[in-house]
Amino acid sequence: MALRDKQRVIYTSPIKALSNQKYRELSAEFTDVGLMTGDVTINPSASCLVMTTEILRSMLYRGSEVVREVAWVVFDEVHYMRDKTRGVVWEETIIMVPAAVKFVFLSATIPNAREFSEWIAHLKAAPCHTIYTATRPVPLQHFLFPSGGTGLHLIVDEKGEFRPDSFDRAIAELGGADDGGGGGGGNAAGDGDKASAGPAAKKRKRGGGAGAEKGPGDCYKVVKMIVERGFEPVIVFSFSRRECESLAMQLAKLDLNNADERALVETVYKNAMESLSAKDRALPQITAALPLLKRGIGIHHSGLLPLVKEVVEILFAEGLVKVLFATETFAMGLNVPAKTVLFTAIRKFDGEAVRLLRAGEYVQMSGRAGRRGLDDRGLTILLCDEKLEPAAAKDLLCGAADPLNSTFHLGYNMLLNLLRAEEADPEFVIRRSLAQFQADRALPARQATLTKLEAARDAVDLGPVDAGALREYVKLRDAADTLRDELRALVHQPTVVVPFLQLGRLVRVRTPAADYGWGVIVAYHRRPAGGKRSSPAEEAYSMDVLLRCVPANGVGVGGSGAAVSYNRKATSTDEGLESLPTPAPLDGGGRSEWVPVNGLSLRYLDGVSAIRVYVPSDLRTPDKRVAVGNSVGEVMKRFANDGGPPLLDPLEDLKVPGTALPTLIQKIETVDDRLGKCVVLESAAEGSDTLVTALVAYRERAAVEEQVRAARRAVKLSEGIIMKDELKRMKRVLRRLGFTDAENVVQIKGRTACEVNTANELVLTEVLLGGDLNGMPPQVLVAVLSVFVVDEGKPDDQPSLDARCEAGVKAVRAAAKRVADISAECKIPTDVDAYVEGFSPLAVKVVYDWCGGASFDDVCADTTLFEGSIIRCFRRLEELLRQLVSAARTLGNGELEKQFTDGAALLQRSGVAFAASLYI
After folding, report:
1. Domain range enclosing 15
2. Are 113 and 190 within one domain?
3. How confident is the model over 885-913, as pLDDT tens digits?
4. Residue 453 falls inside a structural domain
5. 100 Cβ partners below 8 Å, 6+ apart?
6. Quick check: 363 and 160 in contact, CB under 8 A?
7. Where do the DSSP E strands lie in 14-60?
8. In this structure, are 108 and 160 located in the same domain?
9. Global pTM?
């Protein structure tokens, strides 16, 4: 329509690979098409421009003429707005696009599309139409394959109905046979795992795919069954790059293509690699991929060479790859559906912990099953190796996509660009963001919640006790408890208390679960070193204590009856408090017995008495245990008026070392004195029913009051501008660093930082203007800049660096330390050490050698990085260098501009690293 009306249209996508794919598709349909990504620019004057969303944002900030001529902007895969780090780019762009420009948003996974449309309508003061379908064009069937099981179980049919009987049968089969290894486990390493860089890559530091040597597992069996039943092509989703490769190697003996298909694969592959030099064509990853591809098996993950990934995508789209092993990223951007989707595991590593898949993630990946116009139904199969509750399985398999909630956050590049622009300011963008819109919409519900909570708080009756006096009493009581905990920690150190753990010593035992009152030590043990618990010093000892407990069916702790011998091996019951017997009521009422509780940690000592009682050598008979109990009872009666048996004096008896104890005792005495004079005790005695009831009510009211405060904060947030405090703090950081002046006018530092959006603009500008890069040889300069673009995990061993490179890295980290310290001082939550460590030198040697003329194979041989990660680093570096050329030009520093230009020339060598996309 735009081309018909002689208008310009921009088509944006979230990733470069999808932009390249869309450029190819649109070029086949229309002729006047251009492409603009961070890597390449083709025909920028075309009427239809395909670009990444970041490119469009940069054009808006620069005030590009192209934007003024555009009538339509198409946002493909707009659900990327929920991405925590990059989602804000979409909001910035949508807000800043001129009002006359119309939008088209495309997505298959936005359940709250109406809310999104309402935001657009509110933002642009124009109608926004939501065109949607609630049903899939190709219905899905969801199957479960239990580990060690015999076959597939249909859990959710094509109508979306969950089948509990089938699910129960599947779970009952779980672990029914040895799966032979190599199934869908072992994904704790995540997609960033350091594994072999190709299906049969040479073994270097990173090692080979460990699973390849194992026998066929569940994945092999299921894939073979899929092929035999004609359910291919299939995408096998795994959550680690290592597992992708090892599972693919298990299938290497299967041949899924006929002779004609094999010949066609070889022709396509060799033509794709024709542009490479002979040395690049001999790279292990390139030579190893072809034999698998000829058999109809492909691998796709971020560690592969971009050229290899694109060949795999093309072959899969053409039906020449029948089984594709891929990581989650394959489902996020590329439009390459299959008949079947197989999940190798139900858990994934998310960068912090191994957790169950979320329904939204499952929907995104399972949505690749079922090809429109080719399949009457799509199949998803989940390999399950652990017990699942039916409710959890139903939530996963029948769940909806994640709602599109704003991930808007302020960034320094955004802030500086907005402060520099005359027609925009940060508060303008924040007020018009989806985050603010959703906060405003939530205001009535939040106000209702606040009213309800306030009513619940006011309904709590404290009785006749004055609320103010009760608050003072609770505050003092909590302070006293805290001080006594500190005192116990000092007194009950093993070096102090162990000599007093003699037979017959009275001790008070309190666990997090219950107060057991006073008991008698019958033994103590030193735990063997090297056990699974090797942390606190008190865990090196345990004690056996005779306690008065209510027996459960006559069974004591870890034994066959109440008569548990005190001299048997300690059972470490503190590792499972649920196994302890129930303490008897403190008044001694009810049916109770004296039971030896074995293996208690010293941390459960609540008091050590100065009194010892006689304990017979054999406590196996109930009458002897009762006799000891009677002795304890006599002691309790004698000291009833003194609050219990006298404790060992910390100073005179235990002789606690150090100077902290006297001060602590003085604090306790002061608090106890204030407690004794507390007004509340005038109307309710300590321990009385009135005071106990009032305290319970007060605690309940305090818990509701905390919820009221949280609800009040949420209402205040919705009523005003969100992120107001954060904005103030960030402006303070910019002023402290000299990027803006006292009037928030952008200075030369700030204008320089505006040119950088690929890396940390604050630290990079500090290094740039600090003179640390001046005079640095281009080879060293580019190598040092790699610390800004590497996003891989921390290496096991840091590479040895050239002295000049090492000095450059130290300069960058020193600048990072300054920025982090100032951020922390300005009340922005900052982990200074983690911030500095984020500038990793992992790729410095790789880039240094590459810019020095080393071949790609040589630089790969001496690093733990994947080939794909190295190329991503090179390309991001090239993009950063282009930005730095503009920044140096802004500074008017011709010498620095030449350094960056020369560095880019060293980096951007012809060959596999900067090979053109096959889609272009």
Report:
1. 8-124
2. no
3. 988 888 888 888 898 999 999 988 878 88
4. no
5. 71
6. no
7. 33-36, 41-42, 48-52
8. no
9. 0.70
